[in-house]
Specification:
elongated, alpha+beta, LytR/CpsA/Psr_CW_biosynth, membrane, about 55% helix, LCP family protein, 11 strands
Length: about 550
């Protein structure tokens, strides 16, 4: 009786089409092949349990369920404490362990697919079905094991980039509920002595909501005070006030050459000094800095695939300086008005150019570029261009932000991304005009009050003041650059606006759509004006090139 049952069970196993497909019809064999591939895709190890090595299958299922558990935990953490999750992933040792795990999972999943192919037994399939099954297997392996391997590679790239860009050190605590970062665009070209940050702004971010304010600091700002606890307060007790030699963007190199010993524990004394000056100007405690090398800025924009900006007016691409003069050759090219996608070279000159106009036009364009980069650095761009972006970041970004707090800052950036960023320029048009020398003789009580109003949410009260100051003065605007002109090579005379720019510029700058105001302007006409050195007409025609917005 027992022998009969054993014989019956053995016969059943031999006729089971799942484990013994040779006895099944060709259609069943084909269906079995696709089902086993599907099982390996959605539940790795299950194909082995039902049709192959059960011991291997059970071990693979244990790994699968363990991975599912950690994925569920990560999802819960992402919903409850996103910053902590990012801090774990960006931590040096944790990211290394995760990278190794991804590599092992990729290899294990690939081996399971190959084992599934052996279980399928391709010779038993119809000849026309064999390449289809093999092709599907290859696609699934690339999508699963290949995806995990690429994730490990991206994690390794990010580990290298984070380790290069970010500093090691204690975490920052918010001050009065906000983080205050100083962003500088450094330009240390061959024709310059040291680094002069021509683009300077402080980004103040609410630590809970991510709401942000950008305070832009003109490069020719003078008399910057220093907080009482700054080592420069003893060197410059009345502020950085030695005249045109002491404009704000010269402070970095001055400290690096003469007072670096005042910041013995800092890797970048010049940046520390710039933060102290910004703190004194705004009445805020600036906690960290980010320096972007403007020479390499175009690399970062290209790595992002370009940025889209609605440019308000024509912007010249400045040519080299004429030897022995403070003038430039006619521009190498022109950036037209209108919405356009800029590559790195174009975006760099859009943010850098100030020929025939003022620093305040350039500041407005720099703010637009910053906003465009934040708005357009979406997850899809990061995923598809991560390696190029990370490599560019390693080359051009320098910061003292602590790596261990990267998760908190990324979480704040994600919150800020969906909200409008308020802006305030510590100079015209928000403080004074180009003719009344506000940046040369600033009213710090007024600045501190306006900054405090914006931070406390009293934006409406803060906006009333520039609305009253907005009308252009009757005095010729050309007087301001003469008094504010710095002593370095970037203050070329042709870049100063003339008296023609005051009245017409106010009108053209108010035009939101540049098309109607500049439809008769051509590149040939602008180039002709530059060649005959008609700076007055050019300053009038270009006066609205600070009217812009992210595309």
């Amino acid at each position: 009786m027992g022998q009969k049952n054993m014989h019956h069970d053995g016969a059943g196993m031999l006729t089971d089409p799942v484990r013994n497909p040779q006895t099944a019809p060709s259609g069943v064999r084909t269906k079995r092949a696709f089902i086993l591939l599907l099982l390996t895709l959605v539940l790795p190890g299950s194909a082995q349990v039902v049709a192959g090595n059960r011991r291997l299958g059970r071990r693979a299922l244990q790994v699968t369920f363990t991975v599912w558990f950690f994925l569920a935990a990560a999802l819960v953490l992402a919903l409850t404490d996103r910053a902590l999750l990012v801090n774990i992933v960006t931590n040096g040792w944790a990211s290394f362990i995760l990278m190794v795990v991804l590599v092992l999972l990729a290899a294990g999943w690939a081996l399971l697919f190959l084992n599934t192919l052996r279980i399928i037994r391709p010779p038993l399939l119809e000849r026309r079905m064999r390449p289809l099954v093999a092709g599907l297997l290859a696609v699934l392996m690339v999508g699963t094991s290949g995806g995990l391997a690429y994730g490990a590679y991206m994690l390794n790239v990010s580990r290298s980039a984070f380790g290069t860009i970010f500093a090691s050190g204690p975490s920052l605590d918010p001050v009065d509920g906000r983080y205050n970062f100083m962003l500088m665009g450094g330009d240390a070209g061959e024709d310059r002595t040291g680094l002069r940050p021509d683009s300077m702004s402080v980004i103040s971010v609410d630590a809970k909501t991510g709401k942000s304010i950008t305070f832009s600091l003109p490069r020719n700002f003078q008399n910057a005070p220093f907080p009482a606890d700054s080592p420069l307060a003893d060197i410059y007790p009345s502020g950085y006030n030695c005249g045109d030699e002491c404009i704000l963007n010269s402070l970095y190199q001055t400290v690096m050459e003469n007072h670096a010993d005042l910041y013995p524990e800092s890797a970048d004394p010049g940046a520390e000094a710039m933060m102290d000056a910004a703190s004194g100007i705004l009445g805020l405690e600036v906690q960290a800095y980010v320096i972007v090398d403007m020479e390499g800025f175009s690399t970062l924009v290209d790595a992002m695939g370009g940025i889209t900006i609605n440019a308000g007016g024509w912007v010249p691409i400045t040519a080299g300086e004429i030897p022995g003069t403070n003038r430039h050759y006619p521009p190498d090219g022109w950036i037209p008005p209108g919405t356009q996608k800029m590559d790195g070279y174009t975006a760099l000159w859009y943010a850098r150019s100030r020929e025939f106009v003022t620093d305040y036009h350039r500041i407005a364009r720099q703010q637009c570029v910053q906003q465009a980069m934040v708005a357009q650095l979406d997850p899809a761009t990061l995923l598809t261009r991560f390696q190029a972006i990370a490599a560019a970041g390693e080359q051009i970004v320098k910061t003292d932000l602590p790596q261990d707090q990267l998760g908190s800052f990324l979480d704040l950036a994600l919150k800020a991304k969906g909200q409008p960023m308020e802006r305030l320029t510590i100079g015209p048009p928000d403080f004074g005009t180009a003719a009344d020398n506000f940046v040369t003789y600033p009213d710090f009580d007024l600045i501190h009050a306006r900054v405090a109003q914006m931070i406390s949410g009293q934006a409406a009260a803060a906006e009333e003041v520039p609305a009253e100051e907005a009308p252009a003065p009757e005095a010729p605007a050309e007087e301001a650059p003469a008094e504010q002109a710095p002593a370095d090579d970037s203050a070329a005379a042709p870049e100063a606006p003339t008296d023609n720019s005051t009245d017409i510029g106010a009108e053209s700058g108010a035009v939101a759509d540049p098309g109607t105001a500049q439809e008769e302007i051509t590149v040939e006409y602008l180039q002709y004006l530059a060649e005959i050195q008609d700076d007055a007409t050019l300053s009038t025609l270009l006066d609205n090139n600070g009217v812009c917005s992210p595309g």
